[in-house]
Specification:
4% strand, mainly alpha, 454 residues, two-stranded antiparallel ribbon
Amino acid sequence: MRPKARLAEGQGLTLLERWFHLSEQGTTVRTEVLAGVTTFLTMAYIIFVQPAVLSTAGMDFGAVLVATCLASAGATLLMAFWANYPIAVAPAMGHNFFFVYTVVLGMRVPWTIALGAVALAGIVFILTAGIGLRERLITAIPASLKHAIAAGIGLLIATIGLQWAGLVVASPGTLVTLGEVTSPPVLLSLFGLAVMAVLFARGVRGAVLWGILVTTAIGLLFGLVRYHGLISRPPSLAPTLFRLDVLGALRPQMLEAIFVFFFLALFDSVGTLVGVAGQAGLLRNGVLPRAREALLADAVGTVGGAVLGTSTVTAYIESATGVAAGGRTGLANLVTAALFLLSLFFYPMVRMIGGGYHTPQGATLYPVIAPALILVGALMMKEAARIPWEEMTEAIPAFLTMITMPLSLSVTDGIAFGFIAYALVKLAAGRGREVHWFLYLFAVLFALRYALGR
């Protein structure tokens, strides 16, 4: 190696050391690069899922892809430089379905206003950093409801996955029934689910991504997936860039949606940061250093994502796989962010995977994406095990929270039923003092919402 090359390499390593404190964290550049790649592989499914989900709300598929990659890369870099954590950030599963099915389709709100609500929730997240509101909210919501909300969102995601697979179809007499299991798209979905489950059970990193790719290959062989190519110039961002309607989101009827966006982002961010940081050994006496910077990266990423044209971004629990591979610093995030940017040039492949299959009956199924939703929903159900089911004043509200979300296709209604039931059951049991005043307040507001006709 030439002297100048050695000097340049040495300067580069010194710069990385100064930025990310590799020696202090007991890691190396090679380990961090491996961790960044590992994290990307486990969360890359969002590149395919996000455009498929948001396009059902009328948003441009290609623009959502670009917004997703740019927002993920940007927020992941913020996490790297502000907090120096190997925790990647991207549009959150669950939040995207709330955005589409509850706000846009359920409330019949244009997606531009829904993006405005996402941005406002992010701004509230930023502005409340110094007044302790976020900490008070975390304390006010009982643990049983927090776990139930996460599990309920998992059930909602899995329900939509079952519908997209064609495994569950509408039935006038029984609301829903089993679909035509032997039809080609359903069989492809079942195959994809089996592949993902086996890979995941065997501890294969990126099991969801590999399952999607294998399912796509089989779909191509049998004509269930149309070939669009692999690489091209990124599509235009213009259809979604700066299309958010913040003024429209300031209408009184949107306050509920803004609160839920903020509420979900808060608990997802805090839970993921504490969980992944704990696995990485980054907690100090149970406290997460630079927690404010990490939460700020999420919040700024959410506002930026709304401006670009995607739903709430948050820290990804899949970052735990990168930590397991040795990642300890933000250098791993640089690698993950670079791979998100590289993904912009694979639009034809994303379109091929996320595109729907049109059945002869006129329905649109997503046999390649559906298995990923079902598996993600299954993984989120582990939260239900942490609910104290033997304690009825905790179990009943938790159950109502969980079951209402998939049956109403609404995260908001699940939270509302949980809050109202928790307040009533605790009062009836003579244990009303165990309930925080904040929960009583929102229980009353939710009850008034139903009494006044939503």
